[in-house]
Amino acid sequence: MTATTDIVPDSERRGFIGALPPRLRPFASLMRLDRPIGTWLLYWPCAWSVALAGVESRWELFFWLALGAFAMRSAGCVYNDIVDRDLDREVERTRLRPLASRRVSLRSAWILVGLLCLIGLVVLSELKWVAAIIALASLAPVAAYPFMKRITWWPQAWLGLVFSWGALVGWPAATGSLQLPAVLLWSGSIAWVIGYDTLYAIQDKEDDALVGVKSSARRLGEKARLGVGICYSAALLLWAAAIWTVRPDWVALLTLVPAALHLASQTIRTDPGDGELALKLFRSNRTCGLLIFLAMLVVGLSAR
To answer: What is the span of the domain harbouring residue 35?
Structure first.
């Protein structure tokens, strides 16, 4: 019988990770370098907030926040795998992850987390002090997230808190203070994350039930489409409120129409029994994030 440590997932044999030296591939897998969707989804709320604030001369903020999103999403993935390594061994989709399959030692994983956090510190040094403090405050809820699926049926709501945190960072990074539009953006992003992560959780419903992991997809069951639709509707209302506080003009709200149509299409197509389709819809939120960014950029620049 082949030892678990000798089994390498297909994702490490092809693409970007497959082109790396063999010793580096498990670490790249830990960081999910083959799946940048998580970095995009973490980055977009940061970018929205800067854009709506009226970025003016600080265009470099988009770069620094993108680097921070990459580093902290990667660190979060490694940390999540550290916490979930025993659970991951029981789930077909995750049993070959580097820690679950023991191809990476626990000590090496913690060192990687530390190195990625150092990159995060470099990014913090480029932000205004209010933004840096708010960013640091995210560490506690981030650390608690992997345990939420053992505690609540709605770990997606906790993920929403942390994956939307960039909205609270971007505005003060651009302006030097935290104001209502950023809080509204953050609140809308929380609802958006609950919606799209419910889609993501649909593909794992059976495995999650076997190992006792809770999720909104399991809780909602056949009502997942309705739940996703409610979350997306709440997100759009809150984003519209954020725009209104910056530019109280009905025309400005029209900038959200492309994103609204995109989210409506996702909702209509949601099938609680089709995990493959749910994953495709989940990934399409990278495009949705871009549509919202363009809306915020247009409003932010026109309001100045």
So the answer is: 20-302
